[in-house]
Specification:
Blueprint lengths: L8 E4 L1 H8 L4 H12 L3 E4 L21 H8 L19 H18 L8 H4 L2 H6 L13 E5 L4 E5 L3 H5 L1 H7 L12 H9 L4 H10 L4 E3 L3 H4 L3 H5 L10 E2 L2 E2 L19 E4 L5 H11 L3 E7 L11 H8 L3 E5 L4 H13 L2 E4 L3 H6 L4 H7 L4 E6 L14 H8 L3 E2 L5 E2 L6 H18 L4 E6 H7 L14 E5 L2 H5 L6 H4 L2 E5 L2 E4 L19 H9 L5
Parallel strand pairs: 1-2, 8-9, 8-11, 9-10, 11-12, 12-15
Antiparallel strand pairs: 3-4, 4-5, 6-7, 6-15, 13-14, 16-17, 17-18
Helix pairs in contact: 2-4, 4-19, 13-19, 18-20, 19-20
Amino acid sequence: MGLPLAGLTFLAAPTDLQQEKQGGAGMWFAARELLHGLGATVVHRQAAEDPPADVIDPAPTVDPPSALAWARSGAMALTGPADGAPLAPDVAIMERLDGAMAVFRLLAATRGQRVDVDAGALLGERAAISGLTRGGPRSAGGGARLLPTRDGWVAVNLARASDLDLLPAWLSIAGNDHYQNHPVGPWDAVTTAFARLSARCVVSQGQLLGLPVAEVAQPESAARDEQARARGQRFPFAPFLLDGIPIGGVPPGTGHRPVPSTKPILVVDLSSLWAGPLCAHLLGLAGARVVKVESVRRPDGARSGPKMFFDLLHAGHDSVALDLHTPEGRAALIRLIGRADVVIEASRPRALTQLGINPAELLARHSTLTWVSITGYGRTGPWCQRVAFGDDAAAAAGLVAVGPDGTPMFLADAVADPVTGLYAAVAALACVVGGGGHHVDIALREAAGSLLGTRPRLPRRDPGARWSPVSVSDSDSGPGLDGDRTGGWFVDAAGARAPVLLPRHRTPPGTASTLGADTARVLAELAGSRPG
């Protein structure tokens, strides 16, 4: 079929081109690369020209130094040791995320929608709502650790009660049977056991038990391992696969078959936690109707988390609850999918198979359907059944911060989750604008790894950045510079100075529906049946 935006042209203003020549528009480099990967043409308009009616003219922008952009996003305050200065990796993370958000805004504009969301703020919204802080090798959420092994480092995520239940078995396999009697706690037992094992051994044993554990990989090595090769990836990572091929390697196709901007978009969201719901939330901001579908026996675990965060991502969405263990519940789900323009799911392949759902068959049956699969390592390849969450998936790609002594530290809060949610939303909306009929396969590891660009090794602490604590003179020099709002630090880079802002969050537009509140109405309207 080719690429969804083949035949669509976007205009860049002359001021943007000038900024690119000066090296100050990394955001537009990233946006242009993403648009090209989706099949669009990007041209530069001369100063005296008026833009044609069928193209989009992006507003000019100037990118700050990478360290300053990271500081202003709120993510820097979540990166680094708990008892020291925050860290900024020497890689243009925010430029790439801002570029992705710019593309999303342009695509939303083709449908007459204005989306005003700051990409950087997305990284810290959960932390801002929950009051999370940086912990260095301990994740902001507290459930994950970066631990040394005999020959490297691993990221271990024990955020679920079931993960802790499996620890005795894991440590027994590792040759440590003293977990129950350990005098301090589980993390000390794990640290002691892993120090004498290889990273590969730790990961293989943990994944065998279904635990989210990953080796902290060098970026170039990650993009060339057996999983990456099986998925057609190469260094640097593409953020997602489109119809089984990494973006950038898909033939352009024959042309663009646009969906009328007045046609409503129906999104059926089968995902949970953060990345998938963020994708659905952003599509909702772009004008889509979102129907969230949950199992009555196993609803979204985020419902038991901070209510404000759940409301932020789900307010305004319909809530449908089905018993997917019954034929009637599964049939109702299939009928809902048959009415959807976009389906978002975040299940490992075997879970969909158990439900009798085959994305390839549904895409063949519904030519305008866009299917978005979000997994830890991808729907294909030898690691397709592996478990991953945002912190460990980022570490598996090499997206970590590195302290002055070489110790890896987590970057922001479960960074792979919001990054994946944003890229998934861009890909989904591009497919809708192009008429649908595509499968977006996005892995947390690959989306996170794409932010590293061509950096082959773990990103160092930015050598051009200097940190200093907020002083009395800083606090008195103007509004918004108090230690409470800056997290107590300033960063200097490229002759400029900026406060290290604390993470922030938007105000939820309302309250999320209770579980299954809209089931009867939605099924009567869209599935032609009452719930079974």
